[in-house]
Amino acid sequence: MDPRIRVSAILRWQGRVLLCRQEKPGKEYWLLPGGGVDGGETLMEALRRELREELGVEADVQFEGPVAICDSIAPKSLLARKHVVHIIFAADLSHRSLEDVETKDAAVRGARLFTDEELGEIVVHPPIKRFLARWEPGDPAVYLGALWAR
Q1: How many angstroms separate the CA atoms of 29 and 46, rounded?
Q2: Sign of torsion, CA 35 87 115 64?
Q3: Per-residue pLDDT tens for 20-58?
């Protein structure tokens, strides 16, 4: 099982964070917007492509980071073993209207802004809710470690 690299962004808007809803059979969870890095693509190229594909967010966004790196490794008990290295950037979108943000990717079932308090009520993958609630722009980058048990 080779690790897969996923880039994503903490997109803040007026104190809230934008997450994308994903569905799998019997499960609903929320992700930071982003996706996999293709061969020959830089991290920033992949991030900008994914945000454009998923949300219609164009290239004028200024990113900070990476602000966090973590890996999620599926437990050995699961048939579909996965190892994903998450490289997380951040941007503040408060200066722009989010009316033009729309979910375009078929896998994304909607995007929504969450307050820190609302994050406690949902499932976020990778499980970084505590990090999202305490991270502030300008904080140094942090390694969050392996987030799923092996």
Answers
A1: 22
A2: negative
A3: 988 878 788 899 999 999 999 999 999 999 998 888 877
- DSSP lists the bridge partners of residue 146 as 71
Look at residue 74 and tell me if it is in a domain. Answer: yes
Q: What total number of domains does the chain contain?
A: 1
Q: Is residue 9 part of a domain?
A: no
pLDDT of residue 5: 96
* pTM of the predicted protein model: 0.84
Asked if omega into 126 is within 30° of 0 (cis), the reply is yes
Question: Which long-range contacts does 96-105 make (Cβ < 8 Å, 24+ apart)?
Answer: 98/13, 98/18, 100/56, 101/18, 101/55, 101/56, 101/57, 102/55, 102/56, 103/20, 103/54, 103/55, 104/53, 104/54, 104/55, 104/56, 105/20, 105/53, 105/54
The answer to the question of residue 6 being in a domain is no
